Design the sequence.
């Protein structure tokens, strides 16, 4: 933290036991009994700090926040407003549970409390993954390793000028973001640096994407390594840019770690951003991600997500249309192929202006004892007349022990709109489609595999870049094959 006052607020809110040392922990972080949770230390508190600090705080949240604060030894001063605002917010933010927080009603995040939290001190000594694109960025355990490309730079390396000014304004505005949760605040407090993708007015580079690779490792069986990478994308007026995010584990197979990334995207009037996001983490990892998008007049945002990895995966996708005639297209595929795997998408699209257009498609396949959650909210406010918004979710449950919770919802205040939404959840494939294959001499097992593959490929093929598209399809096909045995084992257990 940059200011002494904010740093003292964490210390004053902590209970009397000594601060947590992640490297020496051998037991899980757990909140103390309720009577001890909010006990303050006897150290003196200034009047201004007493007014700023809330009367109630959560011990577990404060312990993690203090670790994050202590881990950031140097950072760009442009991050100070965001870091300070999130630090203050964490003082009154409780750990969310299924009973206490409606947004986590169907999402069990207790896995994050299973291990003590540790933080990276340096990037691991691993061979960097190869990128098929000339513009690429590499984060390793949340630490920025390299950034290459005409329009790509680390925040700390931005020279004075237009790009730096836009980044500073965006980060200052992020401090006022009202829809955040504690994961967003953890990232703001713990981010060491920010990768800035700034595309000037009128520049069109959508055919040559910026490939952002996030690799993660584990630090042993006794702790969970937490990473907080952050990306800021600014597409100025009439500009076009493509972003490809890939999150994956590196090093030891089955690594246990916690990835907590944030991506913020600002799209000016008439600009276009094509965003592809592939999450294929270790099946012992936790992945909590925020994507925040602001679209100005006549801008376009195209988003495709393919998530197959992580034991716990939660994605908060928040989009706001800030001008008329704005287009938003969202496509998502989640596959829970492992036992007790959780995939959660919470999306919110806010339309405030006339003639907005949006389409959202969510698909999921739940196998074995997996749990898939979709909470998609589209809010059409009073002045968003002549809006055309559509939302659809399709879910396949391939095991009696799998679970799917879907909540597609439209909130419409405007009275001149065209809005539709629908949800389809099925425990079996369409018998007519199976019959079509069998009538042509294809056995039921092969027909089932083909139908499941094309169910997911419908979304994956929307990724416009062939190397990413083909890799995602190959992994999806492999996981479908392995999930058959996982489902069989779950039925026997």
Sequence:
């Amino acid at each position: 933290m940059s200011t002494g006052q904010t740093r003292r607020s964490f210390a004053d809110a902590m209970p009397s036991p000594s601060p947590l040392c992640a490297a020496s922990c051998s037991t899980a972080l757990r909140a103390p009994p309720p009577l001890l949770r909010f006990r303050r230390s006897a150290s003196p508190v200034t009047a201004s700090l007493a007014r700023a600090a809330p009367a109630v705080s959560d011990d577990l949240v404060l312990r993690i926040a203090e670790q994050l604060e202590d881990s950031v030894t140097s950072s760009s001063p442009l991050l100070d407003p965001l870091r300070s605002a999130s630090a203050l917010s964490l003082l009154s933010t409780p750990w969310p549970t299924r009973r206490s927080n409606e947004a986590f009603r169907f999402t069990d995040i207790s896995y994050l409390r299973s291990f003590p939290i540790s933080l990276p001190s340096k990037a691991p000594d691993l061979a960097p993954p190869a990128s098929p694109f000339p513009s690429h960025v590499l984060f390793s355990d949340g630490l920025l390793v390299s950034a290459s490309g005409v329009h790509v730079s680390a925040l700390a390396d931005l020279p004075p000028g237009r790009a730096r000014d836009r980044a500073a304004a965006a980060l200052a505005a992020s401090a006022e973001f009202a829809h955040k949760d504690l994961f967003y605040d953890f990232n703001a407090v713990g981010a060491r640096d920010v990768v800035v993708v700034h595309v000037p007015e009128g520049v069109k580079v959508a055919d040559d994407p910026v490939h952002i690779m996030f690799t993660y490792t584990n630090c042993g069986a006794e702790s969970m390594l937490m990473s907080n990478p952050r990306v800021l994308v600014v597409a100025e007026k009439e500009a076009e840019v493509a972003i490809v995010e890939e999150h994956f584990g590196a090093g030891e197979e089955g690594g246990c770690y916690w990835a907590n990334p944030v991506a913020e995207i600002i799209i000016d009037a008439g600009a276009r951003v094509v965003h592809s996001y592939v999450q294929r983490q270790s099946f012992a990892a936790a992945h909590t991600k925020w994507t925040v998008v602001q679209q100005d007049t006549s801008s376009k945002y195209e988003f495709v997500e393919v998530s197959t990895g992580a034991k716990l995966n939660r994605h908060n996708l928040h989009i706001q249309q800030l001008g008329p005639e704005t287009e938003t297209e969202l496509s998502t595929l989640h596959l829970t192929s492992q036992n007790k795997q959780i995939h959660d998408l919470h999306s919110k699209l806010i339309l405030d202006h006339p003639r907005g257009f949006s389409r959202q498609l969510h698909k999921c396949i739940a196998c074995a004892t997996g749990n898939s959650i979709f909470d998609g909210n589209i809010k059409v406010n009073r002045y968003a007349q002549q809006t055309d918004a559509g939302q659809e979710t399709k879910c396949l449950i391939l095991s009696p022990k799998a679970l799917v919770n879907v909540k597609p919802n439209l909130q419409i205040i405007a009275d001149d709109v065209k809005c539709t939404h629908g949800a389809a959840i099925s425990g079996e494939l369409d018998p007519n489609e199976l019959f079509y294959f069998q009538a042509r001499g294809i056995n039921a097992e092969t027909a089932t595999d083909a139908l499941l593959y094309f169910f997911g490929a419908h979304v994956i093929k929307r990724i416009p870049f062939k190397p990413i598209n083909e890799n995602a399809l190959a992994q999806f096909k492999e996981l479908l094959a392995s999930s058959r045995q996982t489902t069989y084992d779950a039925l026997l257990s």
